[in-house]
Design brief:
By secondary structure, this protein is of the alpha/beta class. It contains seven helices and six strands, in the order αβααβαβαβααββ. The chain is globular and about 50 Å long.
């Protein structure tokens, strides 16, 4: 039996691993994925992708109840990871300051947002003339479109999926709180559900929303997607 396998007796107790109560069972490898807070207004006028842009200072104040709700919702025993971009670190710090308490933050490069290459900092209205493929209805580009010098959503899903497997092995049976990005969280869902990245782009991942994934012996399970704290 490997380290993350459960015994037949445990499986019987789990009754097929059904989730019949709001209480999540301990001892399961569980990811608590949070999209960073709203970025500064001027940055939102352009394609910021993997650029390091600041958070909106007004939203940090106005959305304080959401940070408090996240602080209360997240598990007390957890490993925290953030992407290399400051907006994820600042979001994580705001959650901890809102009542969770200070814990170390580990940078995980593979959880960064899609690299838009030469399209970074381009006004949204100028993008269409550069596309080879029709954009996705719910994303700036299709999943297979690769910006010059950047990466496609197919690439994002590949690196995020590999990171999830690696982190799940490293923190087997434990909680991992990961403050990341909309594209990366869609990539995590594509990996968990084994769906095409184009399909995963149909998920809405709002700022400060919570998505919970579990890795069990039987495979990945999606517990919740785009859960808005305090709402």
């Amino acid at each position: 039996m490997t380290a993350h396998q459960t015994s037949p007796a445990t499986r019987q107790t789990n009754q097929g691993n059904f989730l019949d109560t709001p209480q999540l069972a301990p001892g399961i490898t569980r990811f608590w994925l949070i999209r960073h807070a709203l970025v500064e207004q001027n940055a939102r006028l352009r394609l910021y992708g993997a650029l390091d842009v600041p958070l909106c200072p007004d939203s940090l104040i106005a959305q304080r109840p959401m940070y408090e709700a996240l602080a209360a919702r997240l598990p007390r025993e957890a490993h925290w990871v953030v992407s290399p971009l400051s907006r994820t670190r600042r979001t994580a710090e705001a959650i901890q300051e809102a009542g969770y308490g200070s814990v170390p933050l580990t940078v995980e490069p593979a959880l960064i947002e899609q690299n838009l290459g030469e399209w970074h900092n381009m006004p949204h209205q100028d993008l269409s003339q550069h596309l080879r493929l029709a954009p996705h209805p719910f994303w700036s580009v299709s999943a297979t479109e690769c910006p010059p010098g950047g990466e496609s959503m197919m690439d994002v899903c590949g690196r995020v999926g590999a990171a999830l497997d690696r982190l799940a092995d490293a923190y087997d049976g434990q909680n991992i709180v990961a403050v990341s990005h909309g594209g990366a969280i869609r990539g995590a869902l594509a990996h968990a559900l084994r769906i095409h990245p184009e399909t995963a782009l149909h998920f809405s991942i709002q700022n400060l929303s919570l998505t919970i994934l579990e890795r069990l012996d039987e495979g990945w399970r999606v517990v919740t997607v785009n859960e808005l704290p305090g709402i």
